[in-house]
Write a structure and sequence with these properties.
By secondary structure, the chain is an alpha+beta fold. It has 10 helices and 13 strands.
Length: 291
């Protein structure tokens, strides 16, 4: 019932149709996205592309493949039009070839794991976009509402369609020394952002001060079912005056009543977790399977 199909032999049209129909609305598993972020990936396909699961891998010593999560992806796992039950997950796990030396797989929020298969869970935070902006705003914490008033008081303005280069420069200048990303990582995230913009699946929003200088920016990726807070950066002035709060509020205002969810894409970092929760978001978990 499940076949292993090599990357070059995949029916990409059927694959992308299956991914697009998945209720989660994730974009990470489209074939063109996987081609962009990984040199090697194969696929497990159930039936006639009823459910699919990408197997992204590298080669140790150039010959021994191992499964991993590439940079630019939060959740992969199993995708399909119908819900992924624990039984379906178990069938896919058993179908992973033994030739992979190591497995480090991050499934998605819609994948149910069998109780007898050991795994961990990771956290993300989501807000339903099937409600009005006023309903979303009413769930903001008092601190978030104060931040928005502060941003308005100092005259911060949101601009659409800024460039990924502006965002990456903001991040490098203010966080680059802390996170230790290489030029390769920055080139990759810019490639991801430009590709999603080209496909009309992403936008850079920025906040400028009264001198028209950018003090914060973020990239929002989106499908018909999900908006993802993919990447962000800000200056100290922006942080002190609620610039990122204003950007997220602008995104939620734009997405309200469109359906689906707004996904903060994390985080396990306590400070960021508190910040995301303060928008009234709900914690969701997704499975992490490592062998």
């Amino acid at each position: 019932m499940i076949k292993l199909i090599k990357q070059q032999h995949l029916d990409s049209e059927k694959w992308d149709k299956c991914v697009k129909q998945d209720p989660s609305g994730h974009f990470y598993a489209f074939h063109w996205y996987l081609d962009m972020i990984s040199k090697y990936w194969d696929a497990l396909v159930y039936g006639d592309y009823e459910w699919v699961m990408p197997l992204v891998y590298k080669k140790k010593w150039g010959v021994i493949p191992y499964l991993y999560r590439p940079y630019g992806v939060q959740q992969l796992g199993i995708f399909g039009k119908e819900p992924v039950t624990a039984d379906i997950t178990g069938v896919f796990l058993n179908a992973i070839p033994k030739t992979y030396l190591h497995k480090d797989l991050y499934f998605n929020v819609g994948n149910v794991f069998p109780k007898d298969i050991r795994h961990n869970t990771r956290r993300t935070y989501e807000i339903s976009l099937s409600q009005s902006y006023q309903s979303i705003y009413n769930n903001y914490s008092s601190q978030i509402k104060r931040n928005l008033k502060k941003a308005d008081k100092v005259g911060l303005n949101v601009f659409e369609n800024d460039t990924p280069d502006t965002l990456v420069l903001l991040f490098k200048r203010n966080k680059g020394g802390e996170v230790g990303l290489s030029d390769w990582h920055y080139d990759r995230i810019k490639q991801i952002m430009y590709t999603l913009i080209y496909r009309k699946m992403g936008v850079v929003w920025s906040v400028h001060d009264e001198r028209n200088s950018p003090v914060a920016a973020c990239f929002i990726a989106y499908t018909s079912k999900r908006m993802v807070f993919l990447f962000s950066g800000q200056e100290p002035y922006g942080k002190d005056n609620g610039a990122m709060t204003k950007l997220i509020d602008n995104a939620l205002m734009w997405g309200a009543e469109r359906g689906g969810v707004f996904d903060f894409e994390g985080s396990d970092i306590p400070g960021l977790e508190r910040f995301y929760k303060s928008f009234g978001s709900e914690m969701k978990t997704y499975p992490h399977y490592r062998r």
